[in-house]
Write a structure and sequence with these properties.
alpha+beta; twelve-stranded antiparallel β-barrel; two-stranded antiparallel ribbon; 7 helices; Tubby-like F-box protein
Length: 405
């Protein structure tokens, strides 16, 4: 049997495992709501013992898995890579070593990819669909250059109005966005006027992170996480909207202080926190989603804090200044074809040069958000922010801000 015959047969078996696991979990749910962590139930022990892959030499197995990973460059075919990691522990460990972070591979594969920084060279192109009736928002990864493709589901959010604020609960589950769900990963909270927002991560973004003290801190149920690890509200970004002197003719003025990212991250060789896995330490947690399990049952894996030095400044993102278009008689930004409808919600964020060598803002657009339809918006984000952070910042733009306009 040739090497590529082995790869072909293995891919077929993996595809069967993936489809069966998907059908069990989601009941043949439509493609538009398939999540980035397509669930793959591990093969039954008896079936695994009878499989022809049990006695495959580790060196050959690694080579096969590497070729499968390299050949599946985009979704939906990339589900085979996820399926490989769901077969058994040894396969999972190999795949976790092979699959690189989005910064290096420019691919989103496992759920933790949504908390890791985007590629440095080119932004990841996504889009957001809004459901006005249910007050929900869905983030998709664009699979093609077309603005209207089905996309790959990444994150969801649900708007919750309160007496003194508004919360957007963010989840990796398209159907359950409650705080007690297994998919809850953070939230966005606004003040009463909707002019200031705080992005909270449900888990510490780096070592030494301090949870916000308040009545909304909680310990999630043992079904979601081990009681030994508290899931709190860790501030990772603060967003502020200012008075727009241009009125409805120009974009809103906003700035974002990224609490967990140093300003040096945008410099050549700069580094942003990159978590390698969700900090869960319970073997029983997410038993049906093995990709969420940590390598050990001891301490969670949390990246070191880059802001440990008191002299280190936080990254600040600001609006890119628009230019006046004489023919259109309006203020415009170059979205390079990714935005087609004029809206006060449209924005481009660049790194502030407040702490830079020359004091001028950077030219590279880190986050771009704009309208392309009644309830359809594009979202392109780049290093050093993650999909979770970018999605939360864009959600803040949906609120009405009477005090700023």
């Amino acid at each position: 049997m040739s090497f590529w015959s082995i790869v072909h047969d293995m891919r077929e078996e993996i595809g069967n495992i993936s489809r069966k696991g998907f059908e069990v979990k989601y009941g043949l749910r439509s493609r538009s709501h398939r999540v980035v962590h397509d669930e793959v139930r591990p093969m039954p022990i008896e079936a695994l013992r009878q499989s022809c892959w049990v006695n495959l030499p580790p060196e050959l197995l690694r080579d096969v898995l590497m070729r499968i990973e390299e050949s599946e460059v985009a979704w939906p075919e990339r589900k085979d890579v996820v399926a490989c990691a769901g077969v058994c522990r040894s396969w999972r460990e190999i795949m976790k070593e092979i699959v690189k972070t989005p910064e290096i591979s420019q691919k989103l594969t496992f759920p933790i990819s949504l908390k890791q920084p985007a590629p440095r060279d080119a932004p990841l192109q996504c889009f957001i669909k809004r459901n006005r009736t249910t007050q929900t928002y869905y983030l998709y990864l664009g699979l093609t250059q077309a603005l209207m493709d089905n996309g790959k589901f990444l994150l969801s959010a649900r708007k919750c109005r309160r007496a003194t604020c508004t919360d957007y609960l963010i989840s990796i589950d398209a159907d359950n966005m409650s705080k007690g769900s297994d998919g809850y990963i953070g939230k966005l909270r606004s003040n009463f006027l909707g002019t200031k927002f705080t992005v909270y991560d449900s888990q510490p973004p780096h070592a030494g992170a301090i949870a916000s003290k308040g009545h909304f801190n909680r310990l999630v149920s043992s079904k979601q996480i081990s009681p030994r690890i508290p899931a709190g509200n860790y501030p990772v970004a603060h967003i502020a909207y200012e008075l727009n002197v241009l009125g409805s003719r120009g974009p809103r003025r906003m700035n974002c202080v990224m609490d967990s990212i140093p300003s040096s991250a945008v410099e050549p060789g700069g580094v942003a926190p990159t978590p390698t896995e969700f900090p869960l330490n319970s073997i029983d947690s997410f038993s049906s989603i093995p990709l969420f399990r940590s390598k050990s049952t001891c301490a969670p894996s949390i990246p070191p804090g880059p802001l440990s030095s008191p002299k280190e400044k936080k990254l600040i993102l600001k609006n890119k200044s628009p230019r006046w278009h004489e023919q259109l008689q309006c203020w415009c930004l170059n979205f390079r074809g990714r935005v087609t409808v004029a809206s006060v919600k449209n924005f481009q964020l660049v790194a502030s040069g407040e702490y830079g060598p020359n004091g001028q803002d950077y030219d590279k657009v880190i986050l771009q958000f704009g309208k392309v339809g009644k309830d359809l918006f594009t979202m392109d984000y780049a290093y050093p922010i993650s999909a979770f952070q970018a999605f939360a910042i864009c959600l803040s733009s949906f609120d009405t801000k009477i005090a700023c306009e």
